[in-house]
Predict the structure.
Amino acid sequence: MFLFTTVADYRTQRRDWQGKTLALVPTMGALHQGHQALIREARALADVVVVSIFVNPLQFGPQEDLAAYPRPKDQDLAICEQLGVDAVFYPSPLEMYPDGPDHVTRVVPPASMTEGFCGAFRPGHFEGVATVVLKLFSITQPDFAVFGEKDAQQLAIIQKMVHDLNLPVRIVPHPTLRNERGLALSSRNQYLKTPQEQEAALCLSQILSGVQQALTEATAPLPAEKILERLQAAVLAPWQAGPVSVRVQYLAAVDPVTFQPVSQLQPGVRVLIAAYVNQVRLIDNCLLT
């Protein structure tokens, strides 16, 4: 497995892969089983698999601790090696932003897709994501790029960017991977320190499952706002008093392409949720069937 820390060294090797298909898995490291599923998907798609590991300062807000983000480099490289990754691109912030992150040309996705939901609480986040992803596409020149559906708003924005800018890469969504109890796998799950917090975190997937069940059992159109409010209240009721606080930041039904809110629940609608379990912010979603 190759390990590249500079753009120049990667591009030298990239010339040797001409004529082969290449799949990229962009990550910020701290690889878990969800990331591993993306890598396996990439391995099935292409001759060459590249994993990028870069903790992108552009997507961290002023109240978010960039320095505290986990960076288990040796562990991440060992996982990539075990999964048969051909190369890891592991640049420094200086390599990616030679003039500093405040002096880089940025990608600005449509406000209609970035100002709501996670974007409303993390200003500038999706601009930072789109910018680094475009840079990674330019550097690595993939035929495919694999992204998890757990970050559904991010996925939709990247798909929009690829379409609008005519980028020669196919975005491959991968279903959210969950543990045996339904919790979406995330690097943030490590911050759920107690059994009570881990139990409370299941509220997100329980609400989503409830929405799907309500749609499956419905004999008439379902009003999105009313159903979501009812399910949120029912699932969170046991957690209103006690040592663990569960606070929903948003719960909404949207068009999965435009990310605009919809008024009715029906197949093809994506339901989004973000919530705090004590101080740990988690997100989840489901595409209704």
Summary: Residues 187-287 form a domain with the Pantoate--beta-alanine Ligase; Chain: A,domain 2 fold (CATH 3.30.1300.10).
